[in-house]
Amino acid sequence: MRSRTTRRDFLRMLGAAAGVAAGATLPGILAGRVPIPGGLAVPAEAADGSAPRSIRVYSVEKGSHIMTQTVVKTNEEWKKTLTPEQYHILREKGTERAFSGKYDKNHEHGVYRCAACGLDLYRSEEKYDSGTGWPSFTAPIAPENVGTRPDNSFFSQRTEVLCPRCGGHLGHVFDDGPKPTGKRYCMNSAALQFVATAK
After folding, report:
1. DSSP letter assigned to residue 85
2. What pLDDT is stored for residue 167 in this prediction?
3. Are 99 and 188 in contact (CB under 8 A)?
4. DSSP-assigned letter for residue 71
5. Which one is catalytic: 117, 163, 166, 186?
6. 147 forms bridges with which residues in the sheet?
7. Which residues contact 79 (CB under 8 A, 6 or more apart)?
């Protein structure tokens, strides 16, 4: 018996199947769990949806490297512990307005920590006035204490800086800083917590 399925019917069925597949995949893409072909990957947050794991970082208090656990929380849990501005910056990759942050002109001696999890990030000795309106540093406390990844949002190529313990967005790093590193770690004040220390 000859099939009554026409070419048009076949294409409709194929399109419907593709739509179902796309619908199943779209939430994964939007959540950052599924890479988009062609190099336009949507990276997932470092700590979202995974079990805590051990990482090696430098502790100013201990004066040496230590092992610590990554911080894993749901978005709702982060919203309970962060201010709306902190949540927008740390969890949604927002940016505070230039010259509006409380640490842009801070000249006290101390340590800058992640506002979300308290990880030591930068020393005041590495802070300098970049004139950009955001607190800027020539280097982190230790290479292990910050993470980086490509950021191709807003039609530009930048390098995002993240907290390796909680996955929070801190800012970006640029290659236009002063010697000796030539780096400018341009951070959001809202992503930082300053702790004064004796000189």
Report:
1. H
2. 97
3. no
4. P
5. 186
6. 162
7. 87
Name, in order, each residue with C-beta under 8 angstroms of 139's C-beta and a sequence gap of 6 or more. Answer: 122, 126, 181, 183, 185
Does residue 47 have a pLDDT over 70? no
Q: What is the pTM of this model?
A: 0.75
Sign of CA dihedral 143, 183, 90, 120: positive
Residue-averaged pLDDT of the chain: 83
Task: Output the pLDDT for position 143.
Answer: 97
Max CA pair span of the chain: 91
Q: Is the pLDDT of residue 83 over 80?
A: yes
**E strand or H helix at 149:** strand 147-151
At 50, is the pLDDT very low, low, confident or very high (cuts 50, 70, 90)? confident
Cis peptide before 140 (omega within 30 of 0): no
186 labelled catalytic: yes
Give the containing element (helix H, strand E) for 196: strand 192-196
* CA neighbor of 132 nearest in space, from 100, 170, 169: 100
